[in-house]
């Protein structure tokens, strides 16, 4: 391996910059050139490629977002697009590439690998929805950002003696909702993996809790369930309690990464380069049971993940 590429793909996540910095510095330390591919696979197909040196990743470890920019690229899901991507890598002398992103990005990474470009994936998504790993870059920052926002909503909700539905991100996964639900002391935690749709039961519990003198009622609703605004209207109509919905949205993807996100992202970035140096390809860096490990990409994509029964049970007993 003489030159490696690095790109970020899919939704950005705080800590991606720490991973980029680590990829660049680890490669340079080992005498390898690094090329930054801008805007994910879209930028690869447009040949938006620039050489990175150690200095070009100074002052980025504490910054949210990704200095390489990111995109979701339809064309790269086609065989034609993937073939062109591999050819562009070869044209630019890129013989190994680190792809920082989520499941969708790893599908593309697997294809690049099959086309002869040594490829290593690094899990970067606030959703924590990658089955082979207990950690994804950005999740920690995202839950801390959401937690602080929910604390603030709780203040005003209590003052007005309202019910508040706060919708958090996570796509089809409920991890952000679960963690914030517990950390914010919510009254309801609605996860797509678990919610049975019984809104009447929620309404009954709200009325009960008001009778017991509770001044607020915080419902953390995961994006995968959604419909927070209409839920708020129905709850207000059924309970007579003023109810507001807040969709936290993209604020959860921004901001300076936490220490944990900077640290884990740095280790994972370095590990990705070391795998390339060892001649490996088609691997995904992961964090499992307290260790940094790696998996075959296809094997990793076949794995299934679910919210821990034990953690969900405990979360449910804490809300009442
Ligand atoms: O995957 C990260 C994520 O923020 C999800 O939580 C959310 O469903 C999605 O991306 C939003 O995507 P976009 O930024 O394209 O609206």
From TrEMBL:
<protein>
    <recommendedName>
        <fullName>ATP-dependent 6-phosphofructokinase</fullName>
        <ecNumber>2.7.1.11</ecNumber>
    </recommendedName>
</protein>
<dbReference type="GO" id="GO:0003872">
    <property type="term" value="F:6-phosphofructokinase activity"/>
</dbReference>
<feature type="binding site" description="in other chain">
    <location>
        <begin position="185"/>
        <end position="187"/>
    </location>
    <ligand>
        <name>ADP</name>
    </ligand>
</feature>
<dbReference type="GO" id="GO:0061621">
    <property type="term" value="P:canonical glycolysis"/>
</dbReference>
<keyword id="KW-0808">Transferase</keyword>
<dbReference type="GO" id="GO:0046872">
    <property type="term" value="F:metal ion binding"/>
</dbReference>
<dbReference type="GO" id="GO:0006002">
    <property type="term" value="P:fructose 6-phosphate metabolic process"/>
</dbReference>
<comment type="function">
    <text>Catalyzes the phosphorylation of D-fructose 6-phosphate to fructose 1,6-bisphosphate by ATP, the first committing step of glycolysis.</text>
</comment>
<keyword id="KW-0324">Glycolysis</keyword>
<feature type="binding site" description="in other chain">
    <location>
        <position position="154"/>
    </location>
    <ligand>
        <name>ADP</name>
    </ligand>
</feature>
<keyword id="KW-0021">Allosteric enzyme</keyword>
<feature type="binding site" description="in other chain">
    <location>
        <begin position="125"/>
        <end position="127"/>
    </location>
    <ligand>
        <name>substrate</name>
    </ligand>
</feature>
<feature type="binding site" description="in other chain">
    <location>
        <begin position="250"/>
        <end position="253"/>
    </location>
    <ligand>
        <name>substrate</name>
    </ligand>
</feature>
<dbReference type="InterPro" id="IPR015912">
    <property type="entry name" value="Phosphofructokinase_CS"/>
</dbReference>
<feature type="binding site">
    <location>
        <position position="103"/>
    </location>
    <ligand>
        <name>Mg(2+)</name>
    </ligand>
</feature>
<dbReference type="Pfam" id="PF00365">
    <property type="entry name" value="PFK"/>
</dbReference>
<dbReference type="InterPro" id="IPR000023">
    <property type="entry name" value="Phosphofructokinase_dom"/>
</dbReference>
<keyword id="KW-0479">Metal-binding</keyword>
<keyword id="KW-0418">Kinase</keyword>
<dbReference type="InterPro" id="IPR012003">
    <property type="entry name" value="ATP_PFK_prok-type"/>
</dbReference>
<feature type="binding site">
    <location>
        <begin position="21"/>
        <end position="25"/>
    </location>
    <ligand>
        <name>ADP</name>
    </ligand>
</feature>
<dbReference type="InterPro" id="IPR012828">
    <property type="entry name" value="PFKA_ATP_prok"/>
</dbReference>
<feature type="binding site">
    <location>
        <position position="11"/>
    </location>
    <ligand>
        <name>ATP</name>
    </ligand>
</feature>
<dbReference type="InterPro" id="IPR022953">
    <property type="entry name" value="ATP_PFK"/>
</dbReference>
<dbReference type="GO" id="GO:0005524">
    <property type="term" value="F:ATP binding"/>
</dbReference>
<feature type="binding site">
    <location>
        <position position="244"/>
    </location>
    <ligand>
        <name>substrate</name>
    </ligand>
</feature>
<comment type="pathway">
    <text>Carbohydrate degradation; glycolysis; D-glyceraldehyde 3-phosphate and glycerone phosphate from D-glucose: step 3/4.</text>
</comment>
<comment type="similarity">
    <text>Belongs to the phosphofructokinase type A (PFKA) family. ATP-dependent PFK group I subfamily. Prokaryotic clade 'B1' sub-subfamily.</text>
</comment>
<dbReference type="GO" id="GO:0042802">
    <property type="term" value="F:identical protein binding"/>
</dbReference>
<dbReference type="InterPro" id="IPR035966">
    <property type="entry name" value="PKF_sf"/>
</dbReference>
<keyword id="KW-0067">ATP-binding</keyword>
<dbReference type="GO" id="GO:0016208">
    <property type="term" value="F:AMP binding"/>
</dbReference>
<dbReference type="GO" id="GO:0048029">
    <property type="term" value="F:monosaccharide binding"/>
</dbReference>
<comment type="subunit">
    <text>Homotetramer.</text>
</comment>
<feature type="domain" description="Phosphofructokinase">
    <location>
        <begin position="4"/>
        <end position="276"/>
    </location>
</feature>
<dbReference type="GO" id="GO:0005945">
    <property type="term" value="C:6-phosphofructokinase complex"/>
</dbReference>
<feature type="binding site" description="in other chain">
    <location>
        <position position="223"/>
    </location>
    <ligand>
        <name>substrate</name>
    </ligand>
</feature>
<feature type="binding site" description="in other chain">
    <location>
        <position position="212"/>
    </location>
    <ligand>
        <name>ADP</name>
    </ligand>
</feature>
<keyword id="KW-0547">Nucleotide-binding</keyword>
<dbReference type="GO" id="GO:0030388">
    <property type="term" value="P:fructose 1,6-bisphosphate metabolic process"/>
</dbReference>
<feature type="binding site">
    <location>
        <begin position="72"/>
        <end position="73"/>
    </location>
    <ligand>
        <name>ATP</name>
    </ligand>
</feature>
<keyword id="KW-0963">Cytoplasm</keyword>
């Amino acid at each position: 391996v003489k030159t490696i590429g690095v790109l970020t793909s899919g939704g950005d996540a705080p800590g991606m910059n720490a991973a980029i910095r680590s990829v660049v510095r680890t490669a340079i330390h080992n005498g390898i050139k690094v090329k930054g591919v801008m805007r994910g696979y879209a930028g690869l197909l447009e040949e938006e490629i620039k050489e990175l040196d150690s200095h070009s990743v100074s002052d980025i470890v504490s910054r949210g977002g990704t200095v390489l920019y990111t995109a979701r690229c339809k064309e790269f899901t086609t065989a034609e697009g993937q073939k062109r991507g591999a050819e562009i890598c070869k044209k630019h002398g890129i013989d190994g590439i680190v792809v920082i992103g989520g499941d969708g990005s790893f599908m593309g990474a697997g294809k690049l690998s099959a086309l002869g470009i040594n490829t290593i994936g690094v899990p970067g998504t606030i959703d924590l929805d990658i089955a082979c790993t207990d950690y994804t870059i950005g999740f920690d920052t995202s839950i801390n950002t959401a937690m602080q926002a929910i604390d603030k909503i709780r203040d005003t909700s209590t003052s007005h003696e309202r019910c508040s539905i706060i919708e958090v991100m996570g796509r089809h996964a409920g991890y952000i909702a679960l963690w914030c639900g517990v950390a914010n002391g919510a009254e309801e935690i609605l996860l797509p993996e678990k919610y049975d749709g019984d809104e009447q039961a929620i309404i009954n519990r709200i009325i009960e809790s008001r009778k017991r003198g509770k001044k607020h009622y915080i419902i953390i609703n995961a994006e995968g369930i959604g419909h927070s605004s209409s839920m708020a209207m129905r709850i207000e109509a059924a309970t007579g309690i003023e109810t507001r919905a807040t969709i936290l949205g993209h604020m959860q993807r921004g901001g300076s990464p936490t220490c944990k996100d900077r640290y884990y992202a740095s280790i994972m970035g370095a590990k990705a380069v070391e795998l390339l140096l060892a001649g490996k390809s088609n691997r995904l860096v992961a964090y499992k049971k307290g260790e940094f490990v790696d998996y075959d990409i296809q094997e990793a994509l076949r794995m299934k993940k679910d919210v821990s029964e034990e953690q969900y049970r405990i979360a449910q007993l804490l809300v009442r």
